[in-house]
Amino acid sequence: MNKTILLPFLIAVVSWNWDQIYSHPLNIEKRSTTPRWETPCSRDTSDSLPPMVIPVEQALRAMSVKSTLQKDAVIVLKKNYIPVLGRRLTNSFLITNLETADMEGLNLVEESDNMQTACKNNNISTILLNEYRLLSTLAVFLEKVLEDEVYFEHSELYDLMAPVQDKLYELMCDLHTTLYTILHVTIENHVTRDVMNTDLRSLSEDRSSRYYRDYVIYSKNIQYLNHLSAKFLNLTTSS
After folding, report:
1. In this predicted structure, what is the pLDDT of residue 54?
2. 141-149 contacts at long range (C-beta below 8 A, 24 or more positions apart)
3. Residues 78, 218: contact at Cβ < 8 Å?
4. How far is CA 26 from its chain centroid?
5. Is the bond into 191 cis (omega within 30 degrees of 0)?
6. What pLDDT band is residue 208 in, cutting at 50, 70 and 90?
7. I need a labelling partner for 196 at 20 to 30 A (CA). Which of 7, 137, 175, 189 fits?
């Protein structure tokens, strides 16, 4: 495992369960030709969106609320990985360290802050375009988590994972609509699945490592959406 992806101690702990009996996917992985983060509102990007006359401050406040709702859904899912609700991770030392573990490609709070600092004139269009890119990056990681749950865990936690993804796309739809119809800017380039590297994707059949990976993704999700909810509110005073 690449040491830059998760904390080095994970290299040791993954050896605990090499005798784990794995489930295997019943279906070959299939995806939509157009990634969902490119059309989060379930409409073709070439379609004209209805005109929006609401103030941008109102849109920002609504997106702050939806950020919190998505974060709350992830908190519920995350609790089902550890005691007392779940048993996917049981070592308290490991769980504590995973809370602050780093993950390549998912330093979302840092990237959000860096753009805010670089954008000296506090241009809201530039800032929100960057947040859309970061949300799309998160969507790539969550897509993989959900796929692996379906193919390797017989959808055990699917009913908790699906709302996490759906609430993310509800937020992205609002942001997408705000960009196109209130701020009148276009998303020129979308992220690809390459933002999640091969090393992280290759953990699918190593159940223990996959659980560690997913738990870190949830922690990063919670941190970023908490940050984003506050950021949207702060932008209402500067827009």
Report:
1. 83
2. 141/105, 141/106, 141/196, 141/200, 141/217, 142/168, 142/217, 142/221, 143/31, 143/35, 143/36, 143/193, 144/196, 144/200, 144/201, 145/214, 145/217, 147/29, 148/204, 148/210, 148/214
3. yes
4. 25
5. no
6. very high
7. 175
The DSSP call for residue 17 is G
Tokens at 72, concatenated: 């709350």
In this structure, what token pair is assigned to residue 233? 């509110």
3-state secondary structure 123-188: CHHHHHHHHHHHHHHHHHHHHHHHHHHHHHCCCCCHHHHHHHHHHHHHHHHHHHHHHHHHCCCCCC
Q: What's the pLDDT at 34? A: 82
pLDDT at 43 (0 to 100): 55
- Burial code (b: 16+ CB inside 10 Å, e: under 16) for 123-161 equals ebeebbbbbbbbbbbbbbbbbbbbbbbbbbbeeebeebb
Is residue 178 predicted with pLDDT exceeding 90? Answer: yes
What do you get for the CA distance between the two ends of the chain, in Å?
Answer: 44
Q: Supply 208's token pair.
A: 């223990």
Token representation of residue 225: 């959406």
Token representation of residue 12:
């040791």
Phi-psi category of residue 122: left, alpha or beta, with phi > 0 → left and psi -120 to 50 → alpha: left
In the numeric block, which tokens belong to residue 235?
A: 């932008």
Amino acid identity of residue 148, one-letter, is D
Return the structure tokens found at 181. Answer: 């119809």
